[in-house]
From TrEMBL, chain A:
One family name in Pfam for this protein: MoCoBD_1
Organism: Dactylosporangium siamense
Entry superkingdom: Bacteria
Stated name of the protein: Carbon-monoxide dehydrogenase large subunit
PANTHER family to which the protein is assigned, alphabetical: XANTHINE DEHYDROGENASE, XANTHINE DEHYDROGENASE SUBUNIT D-RELATED
A molecular-function term among this protein's GO annotations: oxidoreductase activity
Residue ranges constituting the Aldehyde oxidase/xanthine dehydrogenase a/b hammerhead domain according to the UniProt record: 26-132
Chain residue ranges for the region called Disordered: 417-438
TrEMBL record, chain B:
Sorted UniProt keywords: Oxidoreductase
FAD-binding PCMH-type domain residues: 1-221
Name listed for the protein in its UniProt record: Oxidoreductase
Organism of derivation: Dactylosporangium siamense
GO molecular function (one): oxidoreductase activity
PANTHER family named in the record: OXIDOREDUCTASE, XANTHINE DEHYDROGENASE SUBUNIT C-RELATED
The keyword Oxidoreductase is assigned to this record: yes
A Pfam family annotated for this UniProt entry: FAD_binding_5
Listed InterPro entries: CO_DH_flav_C (IPR005107), CO_DH_flav_C_dom_sf (IPR036683), Diverse_Substr_Oxidored (IPR051312), FAD-bd_PCMH (IPR016166), FAD-bd_PCMH-like_sf (IPR036318), FAD-bd_PCMH_sub1 (IPR016167), FAD-bd_PCMH_sub2 (IPR016169), Mopterin_DH_FAD-bd (IPR002346)
Length: 750, 328
């Protein structure tokens, strides 16, 4: 497939043009849904309409008899393991005897036209014995009826620190709820599977983790991993929603069965049913503080609805729990997190990964505490702010910068937005001419959050990079090859910048990510620039060492295509050292190891790195009509080191907007296990009119244990923008607002 | 999607004859029917594309009214300078609907025929009396925050999704038709209907009839008219509630007033009780509130859509207060 050459001359710390940028804004970028192969067939999926049912019988006659149909497959046709899953293989490739959520794949079809495939799928007759769905996660914990034989409790994470019996003179309690958010990426799930002559298959796929898919796909196909080759196709956004397998196994099964290339593209409605969502959460919190507002204890119970299959729920609940008191010093902690099976749509990874839900609760609590004490909400946070050397509720010591108080001070000190003008575009309801400002009240709110970067709890979290240095057309040129997924975050650009910085060459080509090189791990957990960036840097260092060995020097660096001493003396041209013998090094790079949590106390150094962001939201609320206009966001975040400052700001703005969506509009509405709004007409995401101007303050404090000192940047902005906006709405309205998203019907007096 | 045949209409009368005979459907902008066909909500055997018919003229009538061809794009009408002077509420309603792309594609005639956004109507796996008469209404006990508080029936609590229709109800627009029997015309108030025990019928459009134009009768009060819409985000969203209003205040007294509500009923809801209450009364916030309350006394909210009652009351008061201040 294609390779990418990134604009010349730009190392780390600069913002070279993204190679995909112009193509994307002009509509020329090839996304996975644009894939094409000669003699290609189209796949379609028949899904369960019921959240819980036994399958009594499946009659394929109608589909098989449809002209143009080449294959109709069910669970019996799965060649290898019939179950898959990222952490725990509990999800059937195709339903076996029962369905556990509405939208579960039951059968797949390949035909010579996508519409034929859809019609054939619709012609399959499945006889269901419908059962009452288990939909309340709290009740499901102890319910006798279970979604799986193993019971409904997926994982319980207890955290115990200090005294269990701590008491305090000031106590605030609250019950909070977070709705089910969707990643709402614009490019639906899609991929193309091509059968190979060796009996294997090549899969071109939009994913977040090629090797994560590879292991699951090979297992389910009953093929050795060497016969399943994956290449990254153009990804139209991910945000966690592509970390799990969707149609990967299905497309490969159909391709292997028919001996022809098979393409699958989900419709928007199917996409809503075809990937995991952010866990809905119910949370009970009790904060105890002394009369100065210093936290004495936090007790919390967090219940996450994992839906029908495990996905990454076990890791999500560990995050929600271990980060459950926020970036604060708390001597005594009792937190219990539960991830629960239900017959609701499966939930898994989404930007913020458990930290989002907890942050809405603990930040709401900090505001309540401030109100109970008559303190300023920022003061009470600063008074309790975590500092370097403090311990988390898990006992893990926070190393490196932890500028919690500084971030809060910065957003507080930012100049306030201008007072309301008469421009309709600046009023709640905007150009809808909804209000002329009669019932409009302004409110300001704050939020700060904490997120772990990278995979946790002892997971072997590494990336592999291959860097080749050679002479092309008389010039030194480098090729960097990893399996790391560019999902829109700008990783391709970053890889080239690192190579340019480390090897001092202008011409850098980033090869298409595929599985002919070792795993890069997932493009998730804000980890890819850290881990794959670290691997590329390490591979460059190995290449540089080889160059120096060949040149017989150990006192030079590579700059501008030359070997240069510290004093600036040019001792050789790289072209001459390389000659016609390229240098290639492949390096597997790991960050420092993490450790499991003690299953009884939740103690352990489970996380790699902590990242922090703070938000101040200013809102105008039309209290008569229930309309919210977020007027401005001020945010501050420590990114350690900004390798591509423009992309860093893009991540912060985009993450903040996604948090805004959760605050005031985004929710998958699930009633009795059924998604009621699986479309972009009914599932609302913010438009540009809803997203306010942002003041973005980027700190580069440098983490001594991370490559270049960088700190993962993608998730923190999503985490604290939601509670800041809700706090601002509370300030404007005086309403309690214990649930997000907040919608007009929650704001108009009834 | 079910297979269907497609024809381009050569002439309006032959299209009407074909549709009346076959139960086929018209295709204009396609912004609603194509989605519904994909979802299996509607499945015509034949689509007759009428976009080639000469029904795109916007005429400013000498008496102060306007006549708008049914195939006029929403965006073209919204920016018409005469409309913006004579019927500002209509222009504002059009501009608050959908997105710029949809407004370019959608037509005035098609807008009057768009189907409800009730989630049970568009989900063919759920019971819906509008989609399948007698099947029952899942919305009453289900997800109904968007649905009707006025004029609903046991069988149906759907709302009409159109913004334009609310403004048309305000100005007593007429809908011109071509039926098998020849040209006909009906008031927009006769055109739209309440669900009653025939929820499958959105309108009283005669079978096979083609909407050819919408006539906005000369309405001096409409020059002082406006439209306000409340929704979950700033653009590209259906209304949670909306108000179209026209107001004539002299010496602090309401000489004449018109009010119509959107997203509260199966049809655009002309608030006659509120209008009666206000005519001749001092233009005060108290009177605006009382008028809205009189209109909304008939409201029968469901479990989760009671918020629409204060929403519409506050919207009414806000709109009328704004217009009163502007007229002083």
């Amino acid at each position: 497939m294609s390779t990418t050459t990134v604009g010349a001359g730009a190392g780390i710390g600069t913002s070279p043009l993204r190679p995909d940028g112009t193509l994307k804004v002009t509509g020329e970028f090839a996304f996975s849904s644009d894939l094409w192969a000669d003699r290609m067939l189209w796949g379609a999926t028949l899904r369960s309409p019921h959240p819980r049912a036994r399958i009594v019988g499946i009659d394929l006659t109608g589909a098989v008899a449809t002209t143009g149909v080449h294959a109709v497959l069910t669970a019996e046709d799965v060649p290898g393991k019939k179950l898959y899953g990222l952490e725990h293989a509990d999800q059937p490739v195709l339903a076996m005897g029962q369905v556990r959520y509405a939208g579960e794949p039951v059968a797949i079809v390949a035909a010579d036209h996508p519409e034929t495939a859809r019609r054939a799928a619709a012609a399959i007759v499945v006889e269901y014995e419908v059962l009452p769905p288990i939909t309340d996660p709290v009740a499901a914990i102890d319910a006798e009826e279970t979604v799986h034989d193993r019971g409904n409790l997926l994982r319980h994470v207890p955290i115990r620190k200090g005294s269990l019996e701590a008491t305090a003179p000031v106590v605030v309690t609250g019950e909070y709820e977070v709705g089910m958010q969707d990643q709402a990426f614009l490019g639906p799930e899609s991929g193309l599977a091509i059968p190979a002559e060796d009996g294997g298959v090549d899969l071109f796929i939009a994913t977040q983790w090629l090797h994560g898919d590879l292991g699951q796909v090979a297992d389910c196909l009953g093929l050795p991993p060497s016969k399943v080759r994956l290449s990254l196709a153009g990804v139209g956004g991910a945000f966690g929603g592509r970390e799990d397998v969707s149609m990967q196994v299905h497309a490969c099964m159909l391709a292997l069965h028919t001996g022809r290339p098979v393409k699958m593209v989900y419709s928007r409605e199917e996409s809503f049913h075809g990937h995991v969502h952010r866990h809905p959460a119910r949370m009970w919190y009790e904060h105890g503080a002394d009369l100065d507002g210093r936290l004495v204890y936090v007790k919390a119970r967090i219940v996450l609805d994992g839906g029908a299959y495990a996905s990454t729920s076990m890791a999500v609940v560990a995050n929600a729990t271990t980060l459950g008191v926020g970036p604060y010093k708390v001597p005594n902690v009792v937190v219990d997190g539960y991830a629960v099976y239900t017959n609701n749509p499966p939930c898994g990874a989404m930007r913020g990964f458990g930290a989002v839900q907890a942050c809405f609760a603990y930040e709401s609590q900090m505001d309540k505490l401030a109100a109970a004490l008559g303190l300023d909400p920022v003061d009470v946070r600063v008074r309790n702010a975590l500092e370097p050397g403090d311990t988390m509720p898990t006992g893990q010591v926070v190393h490196g910068p932890a500028p919690v108080a500084d971030l809060l001070d910065r957003v507080r000190a930012a100049a306030p937005p201008a007072q309301r003008g008469d421009d309709l575009r600046e009023l709640p309801g905007g150009v809808a001419n909804t209000t002329h400002g009669e019932g409009v009240r302004r409110g300001v709110g704050y939020g700060i959050g904490i997120k772990n970067v990278g995979f946790s709890e002892g997971f072997d979290d590494y990336s592999t990079a291959r860097v080749r240095l050679e002479v092309v057309g008389g010039e030194p040129a480098a090729v960097v090859h990893t399996a790391a997924a560019e999902v829109g975050q700008g990783l391709v650009t970053i890889q080239a910048q690192i190579v340019r910085t480390e090897l001092g060459v202008e011409q850098v080509t980033v090869a298409t990510a595929d599985t002919t090189v070792g795993s890069a791990g997932s493009s998730s957990a804000s980890r890819q620039t850290y881990v794959t960036g670290g691997a590329v840097k390490a591979a460059c260092e190995a290449v540089r060492a080889a160059v120096l060995r060949r040149a017989g020097r150990d006192d030079v660096t590579l700059r501008g295509g030359r070997l240069v001493t510290e004093g600036g003396e040019v001792v050789a041209d790289l072209v001459d050292v390389l000659g016609d013998r390229p240098i290639e090094e492949t390096v597997e790079w790991r960050h420092k190891p993490t450790h499991p949590l003690d299953p009884r106390t939740g103690q352990g150094d489970a996380h790699v790195q902590y990242a922090f962001a703070a938000h101040r939201a200013t809102v105008d609320v039309d209290v008569e009509l229930g309309l919210v206009r977020v007027v401005e966001i001020a945010t501050a975040q420590d990114v350690g080191r900004a390798l591509h400052p423009q992309s860093v700001r893009g991540q912060i703005a985009g993450g903040t907007a996604q948090g805004l969506g959760l605050a005031v509009m985004e929710e998958i509405q699930v009633v009795d296990g059924l998604i009621r709004n699986p479309s972009f007409t009914d599932y609302l995401i913010p438009t540009i009119l809803d997203v306010p101007p942002m003041r973005i303050d980027v700190l580069e404090l440098g983490d001594p244990s991370a490559p270049y000192g960088l700190r993962g940047v993608g998730e923190p902005p999503t985490i604290s923008s939601t509670p800041a906006i809700v706090a601002a709405i509370r300030a404007a309205t005086g309403l309690a607002l214990n649930r997000v998203p907040v919608r007009p019907e929650h704001l108009t007096g009834t | 999607m079910k297979p269907f045949a497609y024809q381009r209409a050569e002439a309006a009368d032959s299209a009407v004859a074909t549709i009346s005979r076959t139960g086929a459907a018209y295709l204009a902008g396609g912004t609603n029917i194509v989605d519904l066909m994909k979802l299996g909500v509607t499945a015509p055997d034949l689509l007759i594309d009428v976009t080639g018919l000469p029904l795109r003229d916007i005429e400013a009538l000498p008496d102060g009214g306007m006549r708008v061809g049914a195939l006029t794009a929403n965006s073209d009408l919204a920016t018409d300078p005469v409309l913006r002077t004579r019927f500002p509420a209509v222009a504002l309603a059009l501009l608050s609907g959908a997105s710029a792309q949809l407004r370019n594609r959608a037509t005035i005639g098609g807008n009057l025929l768009q189907r409800t956004r009730c989630r049970y109507f568009v989900d063919v796996t759920k019971s819906c009396n509008k989609r399948r008469p007698g099947a029952g209404c899942a919305a009453r006990e289900g997800e109904h925050t968007d649905l009707a508080i006025l004029g609903a029936s046991e069988q149906c609590v759907a709302t009409n999704p159109s913004d334009l229709a609310v403004a048309l109800a305000l100005v007593d627009a007429r809908v011109e038709l071509l039926t098998e029997g020849g040209p006909a015309s009906m008031s927009v108030h006769e055109f739209f209907r309440l669900p009653g025990d025939r929820p499958e019928r959105d309108t009283n459009l005669p079978p096979g009839a083609l909407i050819t134009a919408v006539v906005l009768p000369a309405t001096p009060i409409a020059r002082m008219s406006t439209y306000r819409k409340v929704r979950d985000r700033s653009s590209f969203a259906f209304a949670a509630g909306s108000v179209a209003a026209a107001l004539d205040v002299r010496d602090g007294v309401v000489q004449d007033v018109r009010l119509a509500y959107g997203a509260v009923a199966h049809r655009p809801w002309r608030a006659y009780a509120a209008e009666r209450s206000l005519r001749g009364a001092p233009a005060t916030v108290d009177n605006f509130e009382r008028a809205a309350d009189e209109e909304l006394a008939a409201a029968k909210p469901l479990r989760d859509n009671g918020y629409k009652v204060p929403l519409i009351r506050n919207l009414t008061v806000g709109v009328l207060r704004g217009m009163t201040e502007a007229s002083w």
